[in-house]
Amino acid sequence: MGKYFGTDGFRGEAGVKITAVHAFKVGRILGWYYGDRLGGKCRAVIGKDTRLSSYMLEYSLAAGLTSSGADAYIMHVTTTPSVSYVARCDGFDCGIMVSASHNPYYDNGIKLLNSSGEKMEDEVISLIERYLDGDFAPFGGKDIPFAAGNAVGRTVDYVSGRNRYIGHLISLATCSYKGLRIGLDGANGSAFSIARSVFDALGAKTFVIGDSPNGTNVNDGVGSTRIEALQNLVRQYSLDVGFAFDGDADRCIAVDERGEVVNGDKELYVLANYLSSRGELQNRSIVCTVMSNGGLISSLKNKQINCYLSDVGDKNVCDLMSKTGAVLGGESSGHVVFSKYETTGDGLVTAIILMEALADGKCALSRLLKGFKTLPQICVSVPVTDKEAAMCGVEELSKNLSKKLSVRMLVRPSGTERVIRVMAEGESEEDCSLACKIICSKITQNCG
Length: 448
Description:
By secondary structure, the protein is of the alpha/beta class. The protein has helices spanning about 20-40, 55-65, 80-90, 120-130, 160-170, 195-200, 230-235, 265-275, 295-300, 315-325, 345-360, 365-370, 385-390, 395-405, 430-445, and strands at about 5, 10-15, 45-50, 70-75, 95-100, 105-115, 155, 180-185, 205-210, 240-245, 250-255, 260, 285-290, 305-310, 330, 335-340, 375-385, 405-415, 420-425. A 7-stranded mixed beta sheet has the order 1-2-6-5-3-4-7, sandwiched between helices. It is globular.
């Protein structure tokens, strides 16, 4: 991770850690870099979520791009996967998404995608980091020149790109969902209207919450990280299934007909079996992460399906999928990637393919989870001010606890929030809880 960009973009408190000046400079360097490399005019597409500060960052990015001679195509409020889709399919040089995903409204972020709709290459991110720090050495020791005259770029309203993405989602379904009652939680974020549009078009009867964004309520009591709201909705109206998305809709957590949570690991189990039954699971393998529950690995092994393990982060998942040839990968958080349809996680695609699995199996979601057994696992996020100081001595302590308590432990600084993630997994929930308690105490002690 760099000084500004972490595992999922440049993220922090808007107006404090990430400002309009930062966004302007990111736009400046991207417009110059792609224009210079191509020997012409850069074309960039920009999307944003519903946060109040997203307008500030969106227009600052556009100003930076156009001042470097690039054209900025504005999709307005849309999802991160839609920006990826449009960047890839409409021939853009890069895509930019303004969002802090599942973070609270006062945070915001900038996610960068290349022309293939994938996370931008590390060498470009490194160049941006240097420019943000005022290091002009890569540019001949001088600041990037401003465009002038007819070389100045322009902004283009590109809502048509979002509409084309919606059409793409609808085209993935192979049957009508008429007669099915589906709960949708838009998290008051990017999917607040798109999700309803897609599932209404597919014939479902939709019940929607988290569809009234006001700039400050994204992820507030709703969404994939506040799943209780969707559970209550499914139970209250006896719905067939429910899907909750996060702020930028690149993840999806499901709720079955009983109101029970179906997290990313359980989704992967259902989806792997579905693709396998159709002969579409390449090499009978999927990619999951070191945070995935061991129960997923053993349950799929019983189905003769192998799991490759990647580091946390959908970029790492995608990289390992590409390396191994796996067509399915994901994280327990609900980031799921289907290489047949996309180059990044897409919560709406996940929801549609889960619906396809339901239609194919002609049964409830809970029935598709038959054979899945979860190991006791406890995950805790410890707020910290200094991640490096917080980790002092923690790695050695976690190794000792793993041996002593017979638990699998993973302790890592978050790449998107000011927290340390602590996970313990084993046969005994009591031992997992004790291990987490000891590690969390050590982290808190380190932070004073």
